[in-house]
Specification:
Elements: H1 12-18, E1 23-28, E2 32-38, E3 45-47, E4 51-52, H2 56-70, E5 74-79, H3 89-104, E6 109-113, H4 117-127, H5 132-153, E7 164-165
Parallel strand pairs: 1-5, 5-6
Antiparallel strand pairs: 1-2, 2-3, 2-4, 6-7
Helix pairs in contact: 4-5
């Protein structure tokens, strides 16, 4: 009998080994959603075109299309915790959407702590020679790429929040 996903944090190495194929990550924003995808061996990550968020049905359709296009085997959603690790409005919304995706998609859905990824993404883009005026268009995808890299690496500075499988209740 297959093992059920749990709310407990799985061992990052075991989780990475169980994932076969590409993984898609989302950095949810109110208006834009950053998207990134890994390669099949989960060694490289690249940002994709940003999705414009209007309503749940369109977001689900867009994410479903991306998962099909890349034959992704899992979805990772950034969990925007507060700096103290608490859950604010944005984190609760990410949890709600993750639960909806889990109910609507045929791939496992995980939450990944994404604290400070936007700041890291901006710094990375500036360091790579991008101009400040380009940042808005690129930062969401770069943030999603960082979320995905952290997930795949098993980076868990805050083990109670990082890389949580979305519950099946």
């Amino acid at each position: 009998m297959p093992k059920k996903q749990s709310n407990e944090n799985p061992n990052p190495r075991e989780m990475k080994d169980k994932l076969a194929g590409r993984v898609v990550a989302l950095d949810l924003g109110r208006k834009r959603v950053g998207v990134a995808v890994s390669d099949e061996r989960r060694l490289a990550v690249r940002p994709l075109e940003v999705l414009h968020r209007t309503n749940w049905k369109k977001l689900l359709r867009d994410v479903t299309d991306i998962i099909r296009q890349f034959d992704a085997q899992a979805l990772v959603i950034g969990l925007p915790l507060m700096l103290d690790g608490g859950f604010g409005e944005a984190a609760l919304e990410a949890q709600r959407l993750a639960r909806n995706f889990r109910l609507s998609l045929s791939v496992p859905v995980y939450l990944q702590d994404e604290r400070l990824t936007s700041i890291e993404a901006e710094a990375s883009l500036l360091a790579s020679g991008r101009e400040v005026k380009e940042l808005r268009a690129l930062v969401d995808g770069e943030s999603a790429a960082i979320i995905l890299r952290d997930f795949l690496a098993g980076a868990q500075e805050h083990p109670t929040a990082a890389s949580k499988a979305v519950d099946e209740k």
